[in-house]
Amino acid sequence: MYRLSFLLMLFFSHIGAQDSTTIKKILAFQEELNKEFASEEKSPLTPKDFKTFKELDFFDVDTSYSILAKFIRTPYETPFIMKTTTNREPVYVKYGEAHFVLQEKEWILNIYQSQGLKTQPEYEDYLFLPFTDLSNGETSYGGGRFIDLKIPEDDMILIDFNTAYNPYCAYSARYSCPIPPEENHLELEIPVGVKKYNKQEANK
């Protein structure tokens, strides 16, 4: 009995340690994003909004939306032009698929690689996950959100929806932003990550 209790304690302490590490990474992501928006050189905010900006509005952190997904490489995809909010025509290729279970249902999201960015050394392992969900237009930005990823070393990839962020178009009309492909729509709410931009909340 004592041995069972001891093993259970080790198990839950291990889970707790994992959650703690995940939360630290999410909070670091939020801090870094706020720094970017507070930087006059990097901020996508309009000059008027920048003057009063304090911080972005995030959903509460929920580690159940930090998901280790099965990664399936799709090496023979044809490059395509991803639609944007303007007439800009960036070329992407479907690099792979993320297969995962969320709220007791199986989902698949396509993961893309920018053919323009991959020629730059700092982006050679960069992958792009744009998606939409049922929170769009309500509590999150209507045009969907993005997650930055890196090429995984094996057949698993971490999809942390807590790090979902808004395209720059959510903050200023001067930007051209990719529109998430229809196949990357999730028929459920993703109540984590960056919320819909609200000037009053951001300026508090």
Helix content: 10-25%
Say what oligomer this is: single chain
Q: What portion of the residues fall into strands of 2 or more residues?
A: 15-25%
Terminal Cα span:
53 Å
**Average residue-wise pLDDT:** 90
Count of individual beta strands: 7
Number of helices: 3
Question: What count of domains describes the coordinates?
Answer: 1
Low-confidence stretches: 4-17
Strand pairing plus helix content: what structural class?
Answer: alpha+beta
* Order of helix and strand elements from N to C terminus: HHEEEEEEEH
What would you say this structure looks like, in words?
This protein has helices at 2-37, 47-52, 199-202; strands at residues 66-73, 80-81, 91-102, 105-114, 126-131, 145-150, 156-160. Helices cover 23% and strands 24% of the residues. The chain has three helices and seven strands; from the N terminus they run ααβββββββα. It has one domain (57-202). The strands form two sheets. Strands 1, 2, 3, 4 and 7 form a five-stranded antiparallel sheet that branches. The protein has a two-stranded antiparallel ribbon with strand order 5-6. By secondary structure, the protein is α+β, with helices and mostly antiparallel strands. The chain starts with a helix and ends with a helix.
